[in-house]
Design goal:
homodimer; alpha/beta; 11 helices; 14 strands
């Protein structure tokens, strides 16, 4: 009985996959056991933008060299590490794209210690406006978020993504909004930013901004100036201005998506504080929401690895 | 006969008004004779943002002290010099506002040499979206642009203004678009800017961007990301990207205005190169355009001065 328990423990804790979420700013490495269970997590500031040319393997070894020696399990990576500025370019998959297409188009990078890194491809799709759109990393999160055909999922962030799921768990199509980057640009570099006092929560100002953004999304560049005027005339206090702008930009995003594609419910996936903002604005827009599981990224990486035959689904 | 000619010459060349166009970045001073004729022009980089606290009079004397000694004519100023960050705050006039209201609400600043500076008030109005909007300087240009009731006028720039004229030459209402500032932010500070090669004319890329902006103005923050993707995928060459973005932002602005207020003809007032861009996009939008006279600013300042009794209209 004791033997069996020990063996079970061993089997349960054995590392099956090293999963890297390697983005623009950060590298997060997880050691996964059976059933995508997270055994250990490490993070480093070694995002794609911070890594010197051809320095990716050194960064990986510094963070996870001991894991690689100890476990000799496959290494899977998703995110900007597969971009032109990353370790090796992983060509985009055309939408609709699911696990089967991703597993068949992994980019393999031989590592010095005899191991192999498998990079998940990003996705490309053409929007209703005829323009291309791209993602890298979010596709893997979507595959791990337990979504069904017809579901809509938003991933807030620097470049917020809205995705719609197709048959067989494929990502049917998606749209990117530059909401997070635009917010940062306006706060840090615009005349509007000069009127702001940062760091204070102001749910009321957020709601005012969101209401306005939802109603007036078709007049974005006028509305952004109105935020400045609201600061100038004192209608919004300097402490409330950052939240007013945040609400306005998120409201504009949701208003624009809704006009393009009516929706009943949206799954929200990402950073806690940002998800709460989107949920508030979605509620104001009359759209129901539910939260995606926190481990969507590692679950998605695990599922790609299973599909590619790199790990076996535990029974 | 010779005497008469000399006297006529003297009367014609005598300075009647010193007109200052004092904005955020530049100060332009004009010496005006009868009928608002420009006798001499001087410019300095001493915009409101560059003037040290309480240093406005020194800047003015450095540029125009000799004029003030020689001519002893009234001094009129319009623009950001009347803002909170300017020489003295000139309270906003509520729209609709015409020459009579402006002349009755000049802000008078006593100058050291016994002269007086008269600052034209800016305008404030409430938009259809319930938000305040403001202008400083453009109101004076509008009054000098020879506009009639019902006319619509656009003043392209960092903060582009669209104004509609009411009865008696009043500015009925207006809307600001942050087009120019947003363009600069995106080129200088965004990920999009990193893909660009600046300095090359590309009318084709401009037209593509304008077409897209006109059609998809309701999805602004998505469209801006699409510009980045177009650079990433090579659909738009790096040399064409600045013009593509410029066209897109101007197209979005015109699309948004048109949705709010259908229009047949627009008067375009401002910098030559920028006016040409707006005229191209207006043409694509099926809106006729005409150009405002080049001396709209000094004509407007003159008209305010006449209305205030500071100068006499020549007969």
């Amino acid at each position: 009985m004791a033997m069996l328990a020990r063996r079970t423990m061993q089997r349960m804790t054995a590392a099956r996959l090293m999963a890297l979420d390697w983005g623009t700013s950060n590298l997060r490495a997880c050691l996964l056991g059976d059933g995508a269970r997270v055994l250990e997590t490490r993070t480093a500031a070694g995002g794609v933008m911070a890594v010197p040319e051809r320095g990716f393997e050194a960064v990986l070894l510094a963070l996870c060299g001991d894991w690689m020696d100890a476990h000799r399990c496959p290494v899977m990576a998703s995110g900007m590490v597969g971009s032109r500025q990353g370790w090796q370019e992983a060509p985009y998959l055309e939408c609709p794209a699911g696990l089967a297409q991703a597993a068949a188009q992994l980019t393999h990078v031989a590592l010095a210690r005899g191991s192999t890194l498998h990079i998940v491809p990003g996705l490309i799709c053409q929007g209703a406006d005829g323009q291309d759109d791209v993602m890298r990393g979010e596709e893997t999160q979507l595959w791990g978020a337990g979504l069904s055909e017809g579901d809509c999922c938003v991933l807030p962030g620097t470049h917020a993504k809205w995705a719609w799921m197709g048959p067989g768990g494929a990502v049917q199509r998606f749209m990117t909004y530059m909401t997070g980057e635009l917010y940062a640009l306006l706060v840090q570099h615009s005349l509007l930013g000069r009127l702001m006092v940062a760091g204070q929560a102001s749910p009321e100002a957020f709601a005012q901004g969101a209401q306005l953004g939802l109603a007036e999304f078709a007049h974005a560049t006028h509305l952004i100036f109105a935020a400045r005027t609201a600061g100038l005339t004192g209608r919004i206090a300097p402490q409330g201005l950052p939240e007013f702008l945040s609400g306005m930009l998120i409201g504009m995003e949701i208003g624009s998506v809704k006009q393009r594609q009516p929706m009943q419910q949206v799954t929200v996936l990402g950073d806690e504080a940002l998800c709460l903002r989107y949920e508030t604005a979605l509620q104001m827009a009359g759209v129901a929401h539910r939260r995606a599981p926190r481990d969507a990224t590692t679950r998605g990486q695990w599922r790609v690895a299973v599909q590619a035959g790199l790990v076996k689904e535990s029974t």
